[in-house]
Amino acid sequence: MVALGAGAALYGAVVAAANRFALPRLREGAAVTESVTVVVPARDEAPRIASVIADLREQRGVPRLRVLVLDDDSSDGTFEIARRAADSDPRITVVRSSTPPPDGWTGKAAACERAFSESHPDETGVVVFIDADVRLRPGAIAAAVTLLRSRSAALVSPWPYQVAGTVTERLVQPLLFWSWFSILPVAVAHRTRRPSMAVACGQFLAFDTADYRAIGGHSAVAASPTEDLDLARTLRRSGRTTVVAAGGPLVSCRMYEGRHTLTGGYTRWLWSAFGSPAGAAAVVTAYAVAYVVPGVAAVAGRGHTRRWGVLGTGAALLSRAVARSTERGERLDAADALGIAAHPVSVVIFGWLTAASVRARSAGRAVWKDRLLP
Fold first, then answer.
1. Least confident of 38-42, 244-248, 329-333
2. Residue 171 located in a structural domain
3. pLDDT > 80? residue 364
4. CATH code of the domain containing 196
5. Contacts of 158 (CB under 8 A, 6+ apart)
6. Domain end point (choices 256, 280, 308)
7. Are residue 269 and residue 130 in the same domain, yes or no?
8. Nearest to 8 by CA among 371, 347, 238, 336
């Protein structure tokens, strides 16, 4: 078992090393001349909404930029803060909706669909969906549109650098990027339209507007707790191209702040990531064999067992380090190094979060932002 786990970890290290060179990156460049509509759905985002609006106002190279901020029935003053942050900027419209999601819709999908219809984007332009907790450097939107057009894609998803503050965040958040970066050969994934090889991050999605309309927009994934991934899969099923890219350092996001919100956030959707409870159990078991068992063997094993454990552990830490540095787009810091060293612990926490998510879903307790998921 230790040798099997070490082999799987070595595969992950090789894929990560190859993806380091194959994964597209956002790069600041020339201005884009077409119409770009940015949609920001926001529910109870008072601490963050002003920052993302300020970032959008500072975007360069997008002369035909329009922004629609939709307050989704917030109770914390998000709407008022957003209006003040917009400061009568003619490019920015802030609207409020008090309508609950229709039956069978998640709150985010309903908010995105409503905001898109309110924004009236040009048919031939680009529509970008940004979460309220995303931070953007001034050239980020133009860089995403440039990459979308250079790849002749229907969707480009720049993966934001996941900022981690607390110890729990540092252990868990880097797994989001690493989990696919160390398994999926990007050079292959971007040459095929297979839905199973799609990757997307809903924090930042840039669509060709006509392609987004053609699949029905967010109505095509109304009930999905992972609407980002399912939008990419739907586009691929229709014969269209989707691309994932490294967004750091132009794009970053502190997705969750602290253990409580992180646990609630992952419990909301992890149950859906692997198709079924049996699929979730299989993935967690595979991760344990590849990334926990070798670590135990490296410490407690002897002879060949220990050598296999050391080899597997080294490969696991290498894949995590390559993934984190690629995601960040900058040099790793001391906090990153500590998270990398504790990678087996991260995988154990991931397994616990997956089990908690499956239990919550089975009990009908999967909730996000005070709304029960369909």
1. 329-333
2. no
3. no
4. 3.90.550.10
5. 26, 140, 143, 144, 147, 201, 204, 206, 245, 246, 247, 250, 251
6. 256
7. no
8. 347
Q: For residue 67, what is the enclosing H or E element? A: strand 65-72
Domain that holds residue 13: 2-20+260-367
Q: 205 and 272 share a domain?
A: no
**Residue entry with tokens 């969750």:** 256
pLDDT value of residue 220: 97
Q: What is the pLDDT of residues 5-60, one digit of tens each?
A: 999 999 999 999 999 999 999 999 889 999 999 999 999 999 999 999 999 999 99
Query: Are residue 198 and residue 332 in the same domain, yes or no?
Result: no
How many Cβ atoms sit within 10 Å of the Cβ of residue 90?
Answer: 7
Do 286 and 249 belong to one domain? no
Q: What is the pTM of this model?
A: 0.93
Q: Please give the radius of gyration of the chain, using alpha carbons only, rounded to the nearest integer.
A: 21
Residue with tokens 């990334």: 291
Q: What's the one-letter identity of residue 65?
A: L
**Do residues 37 and 119 make contact, with C-beta atoms less than 8 angstroms apart?**
yes
CA trace torsion 72, 73, 76, 82 (10° rounding): 50
Reported as a single tens digit per residue, the pLDDT across 156-203 is: 999 999 999 999 999 999 999 999 999 999 999 999 999 999 999 999
Residue that terminates a domain, selected from 201, 226, 256: 256
Burial (Cβ within 10 Å: 0-12, 13-18, ≥19) of residue 359: middle
The token pair at 84 is 């003040």
Q: What are phi and psi of 3, to 5 degrees?
A: -65, -40
Q: What is the DSSP letter of 316?
A: H
Contacts with 21 (C-beta within 8 Å, 6 or more apart), sequence order: none
Tell me how many domains the chain contains: 2
Written as one letter, the residue type at 60 is R
Q: Does residue 62 fall inside a structural domain? A: yes
